């Protein structure tokens, strides 16, 4: 049996759990954190290159310095250096037939005039609806009973537009546009300021800034602010028993811990891996069993130079590519030139990702390299230039591959998604407490859900809930 009854136990040492524990301890209450992994950070995971040239983020990677205020405040508090996402140069689009073309960053691919107009019309419609939600003025109609794809079709979207929305759905949430509620997608974007904001790499945008030493640097620094021996790693929680005034937690190692309150900071669908007594029921159970995590993988190709910025044809590529082919739907330049780290991050998500994931590792890697070659070689007019591109693509200095869906304690990324009908029926139950149990995580945030900012904000909320009940100094969001 446990030898001490803590004020609070936090399950999960990602950003939301660490933030909750920090606020609770600042309020003078006792708190420990139980983490299943052998590290802190959750989906923030930064790995150094073998050659010593910097790090790569195989999990969360971007922030900004304006509307993601809490994460930005931590970068200032901890002296974490931020670098701007490269947007200088041309993007590349790859169509269904494999044909490629370049287009300036900030513009639409070179579709026919009618298709460009239609794509921008649907983009603006989703953006306006999401901004209306975010400003709490609300949309005229609720679209929860239809999928995102059905929504686009109902608004007269062309096939080219539907195909692009499928890319949005895959790269943003790892699911197909047929699997996600249109209203959920609208609200998800609204929590971050609108579709255009979430997709932007420029000032105020979701992908404006990256972390020189990786996003895990926030989690690692935050963990040092907790009292010594507060974090217990490699302790997967298998059961939670809630009785009046006392919560008992058992881990897979056979250890037992007790507390007056508990904050659960794991992805909602993973609640099913824990035995609750009494069992979760009602809306909380429905939310748990009805939210899904998309298929999400990153393959990061590291090179000795940023060869894509000086292609033989003279095309100055910024490293952003969008593809209707598979397995890679989006490619990003994730270099840190100051450290000599030059990388292209390939996003492999949704249904194409699940198909790709079944292949042996060497075939998965071969498919990725082949597609990256076709993306850049297709912009070259001479065979000799294509050979030069091939030589560059097929000679990475290091390759990282992370399948978040196969990671035991995440099972997908970036956050749980709701299909048609779920949000309107039980969406409010997502962050509702049950007995002595409180629930946090980026998906429960009203601001920047799915992002690091949302995770930290949810941790602030969860801490305030238990502090208000147990007493102690109120701390809010002050860092």
From TrEMBL:
<keyword id="KW-0560">Oxidoreductase</keyword>
<feature type="binding site">
    <location>
        <begin position="35"/>
        <end position="36"/>
    </location>
    <ligand>
        <name>FAD</name>
    </ligand>
</feature>
<dbReference type="InterPro" id="IPR002937">
    <property type="entry name" value="Amino_oxidase"/>
</dbReference>
<dbReference type="GO" id="GO:0097621">
    <property type="term" value="F:monoamine oxidase activity"/>
</dbReference>
<feature type="binding site">
    <location>
        <position position="443"/>
    </location>
    <ligand>
        <name>FAD</name>
    </ligand>
</feature>
<feature type="binding site">
    <location>
        <position position="16"/>
    </location>
    <ligand>
        <name>FAD</name>
    </ligand>
</feature>
<dbReference type="Pfam" id="PF01593">
    <property type="entry name" value="Amino_oxidase"/>
</dbReference>
<dbReference type="InterPro" id="IPR050703">
    <property type="entry name" value="Flavin_MAO"/>
</dbReference>
<protein>
    <recommendedName>
        <fullName>Amine oxidase</fullName>
        <ecNumber>1.4.3.-</ecNumber>
    </recommendedName>
</protein>
<feature type="binding site">
    <location>
        <position position="347"/>
    </location>
    <ligand>
        <name>substrate</name>
    </ligand>
</feature>
<dbReference type="InterPro" id="IPR036188">
    <property type="entry name" value="FAD/NAD-bd_sf"/>
</dbReference>
<comment type="similarity">
    <text>Belongs to the flavin monoamine oxidase family.</text>
</comment>
<keyword id="KW-0274">FAD</keyword>
<feature type="binding site">
    <location>
        <position position="237"/>
    </location>
    <ligand>
        <name>FAD</name>
    </ligand>
</feature>
<feature type="domain" description="Amine oxidase">
    <location>
        <begin position="15"/>
        <end position="467"/>
    </location>
</feature>
<keyword id="KW-0285">Flavoprotein</keyword>
<dbReference type="InterPro" id="IPR001613">
    <property type="entry name" value="Flavin_amine_oxidase"/>
</dbReference>
């Amino acid at each position: 049996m446990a030898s001490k009854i803590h004020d609070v136990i936090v399950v999960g040492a990602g950003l939301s759990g660490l933030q909750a524990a920090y606020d609770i301890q600042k309020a003078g209450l006792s708190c420990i954190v139980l983490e299943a992994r052998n590290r802190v950070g959750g989906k923030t995971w930064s790995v150094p290159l073998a050659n010593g040239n910097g790090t790569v983020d195989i999990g969360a990677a971007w922030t900004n310095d304006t509307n993601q205020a809490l994460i930005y405040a931590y970068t200032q508090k901890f002296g974490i250096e931020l670098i701007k996402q490269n947007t200088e140069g041309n993007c590349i689009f790859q169509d269904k037939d494999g044909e490629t073309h370049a287009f300036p960053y900030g513009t639409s691919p070179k579709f026919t005039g009618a298709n460009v107009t239609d794509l921008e019309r649907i983009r603006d419609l989703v953006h306006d609806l999401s901004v209306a939600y975010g400003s709490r003025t609300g949309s005229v109609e609720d679209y929860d009973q239809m999928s995102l794809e059905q929504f686009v079709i109902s608004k007269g979207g062309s096939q080219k537009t539907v195909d692009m929305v499928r890319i949005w759905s895959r790269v943003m949430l790892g699911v197909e546009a047929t699997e996600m509620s249109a209203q959920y997608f609208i609200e998800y974007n609204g929590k971050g300021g609108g579709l255009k904001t979430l997709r932007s790499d420029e000032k105020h945008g979701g992908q404006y800034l990256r972390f020189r030493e990786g996003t895990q640097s926030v989690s690692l620094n935050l963990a040092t602010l907790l009292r010594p021996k507060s974090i217990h790693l490699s302790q997967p929680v298998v059961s939670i028993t809630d009785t009046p005034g006392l919560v008992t937690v058992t881990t897979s190692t056979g250890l037992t811990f007790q507390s007056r309150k508990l904050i659960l900071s794991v992805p909602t669908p993973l609640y099913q891996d824990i035995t609750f007594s009494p069992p979760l029921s009602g809306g909380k159970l429905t939310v748990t069993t009805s939210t899904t995590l998309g298929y999400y993988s990153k393959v990061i190709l590291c090179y000795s130079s940023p060869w894509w910025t000086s292609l033989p044809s003279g095309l100055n590529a910024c490293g952003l590519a969008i593809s209707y082919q598979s397995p890679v739907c989006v490619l990003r330049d994730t270099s840190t030139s100051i450290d000599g780290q030059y990388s292209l991050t390939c996003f492999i998500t949704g249904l194409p990702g699940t198909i790709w994931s079944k292949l042996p590792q060497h075939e998965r890697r071969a498919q990725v390299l082949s597609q990256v070659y076709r993306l850049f070689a297709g912009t070259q007019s001479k065979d000799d230039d294509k050979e030069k591109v091939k030589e560059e693509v097929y000679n990475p200095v290091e390759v990282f591959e992370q399948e978040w869906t196969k990671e035991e304690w995440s099972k997908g990324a970036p956050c749980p998604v709701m299909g048609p009908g779920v949000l309107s029926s039980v969406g409010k139950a997502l962050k509702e407490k049950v007995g002595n149990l409180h629930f946090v995580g980026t998906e429960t945030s009203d601001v920047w859900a799915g992002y690091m900012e949302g995770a930290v904000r949810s941790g602030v909320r969860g801490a305030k809930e238990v502090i208000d009940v147990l007493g102690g100094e109120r701390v809010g969001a002050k860092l």
